[in-house]
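Re: that backbone. Tokens:
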């Protein structure tokens, strides 16, 4: 089984890239009246990349002169919505909420795959987030559209109206992901958060700016996972470490575990190192070190002046990006295990360890990122691979 199959970092999360990577377009705006077409035109004038759909009968309408492009349709609107539902990340429907509900009802599956659906009335007074408010991004899109139209956004999800933590969106702006083993606890924890039940949070990796306001009164921060375990509280855990499910089985039964993108893998390799060698080396390293492969932010290695085919294939297969550093950049980094032999061949005393530390420090030095911390010293996988792992350390973790 390919352990990297779900590591694909197609987020970027538009950071609301919630399993919609198969969808073709981003936003479709559907208008069925002249007023609706005028509203669609106002949106299109600001958001040029959005697609507008309107009935063919309005093609000669004066309002269309302001439109750059309209997709005219002759089919029933219900048939159009059925077609667009699985083709776009978001649908903005400028007609009645009841009609929209009837049209989309047969195609709704779950909040991880359904597109965001917004409904706007014919006078643009209200912009309603109707479907996939959180994971699909409908709430954020409703606020954006309401700003453009000077309308009132209508948001009904409890976490938003109560201004509490949205359990299913934590750290989404940073590309965090929920560990698959804890996904079944999302509903339970979301309900507990909204109902203001006591909830514990433990974090030992990743960005600290995921909640900019004062924490809700029902949320308590714990300094160790053992304290959190002993508390008996339902929990949010933010870590790049694997959690011993024999020791913490009861805790994991009441927790949602988030994987921040906090680890950088440094690789030393040859021109002929294969994709499978890289995958096995990383898998063994992470398993032995009790680290989650889902927290890999990037691969870092030496710039050689040519592309290593196996590394390119590995990156394409997993979605993990690669960062390259020159031998001078790597030679300037202090490492615990320098090698005269490596220096003779590569022009720097270290590749894997130095690259991991360089990648964890960041090429662009994000404002709150300080330095990297080597968490796995170099491991050799004969004949052609060396692996090291560094963790990104943020100012607030110093």
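Recovered sequence:
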């Amino acid at each position: 089984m390919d352990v990297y199959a779900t590591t694909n970092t197609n987020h970027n999360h538009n950071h609301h890239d919630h399993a919609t990577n198969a969808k073709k377009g981003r936003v479709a705006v559907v208008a069925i009246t002249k007023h609706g077409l005028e509203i669609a035109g106002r949106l299109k004038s600001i958001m040029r990349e959005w697609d507008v759909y309107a009935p063919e009968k309005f093609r000669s309408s004066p309002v269309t002169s302001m439109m750059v492009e309209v997709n005219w349709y002759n089919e029933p609107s219900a048939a159009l919505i059925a077609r667009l539902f699985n083709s776009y990340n978001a649908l903005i429907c400028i007609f009645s909420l009841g009609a929209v509900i009837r049209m989309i009802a047969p195609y709704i599956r779950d909040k991880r795959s359904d597109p965001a659906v917004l409904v706007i009335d014919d006078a643009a007074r209200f912009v309603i987030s109707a479907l996939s408010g959180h994971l699909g991004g409908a709430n954020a899109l409703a606020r954006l559209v309401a700003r453009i139209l000077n309308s009132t956004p209508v948001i009904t999800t409890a976490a938003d109206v109560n201004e509490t933590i949205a359990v299913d969106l934590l750290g989404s702006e940073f590309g965090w992901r929920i560990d698959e083993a804890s996904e079944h606890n999302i509903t339970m924890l979301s309900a507990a958060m909204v109902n203001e039940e006591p909830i514990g949070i433990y974090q030992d990796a990743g960005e600290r700016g995921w909640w900019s306001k004062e924490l809700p009164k029902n949320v308590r921060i714990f300094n160790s996972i053992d304290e959190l375990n002993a508390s008996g509280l339902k929990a949010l855990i933010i870590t790049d470490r694997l959690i011993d499910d024999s020791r913490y089985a009861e805790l994991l039964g009441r927790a949602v575990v988030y994987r921040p993108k906090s680890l950088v893998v440094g690789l030393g390799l040859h021109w002929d190192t294969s994709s499978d060698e890289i995958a096995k080396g990383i898998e063994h390293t992470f398993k032995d070190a009790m680290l989650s492969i889902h927290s890999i932010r990037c691969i870092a290695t030496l710039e050689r002046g040519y592309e290593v085919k196996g590394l390119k294939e590995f990156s394409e297969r997993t979605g993990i990006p690669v960062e390259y550093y020159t031998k001078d950049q790597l030679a300037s980094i202090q490492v615990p295990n320098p090698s005269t032999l490596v220096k003779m061949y590569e022009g720097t005393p270290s590749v894997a360890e130095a690259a991991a530390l360089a990648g964890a420090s960041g090429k662009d030095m994000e404002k709150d990122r300080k330095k990297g911390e080597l968490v796995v010293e170099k491991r050799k996988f004969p004949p052609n691979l060396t692996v090291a792992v560094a963790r990104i350390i943020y100012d607030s973790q110093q």
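The first strand starts at residue 25 and ends at 31. The chain has three domains: 25-156, 167-259, 263-397.
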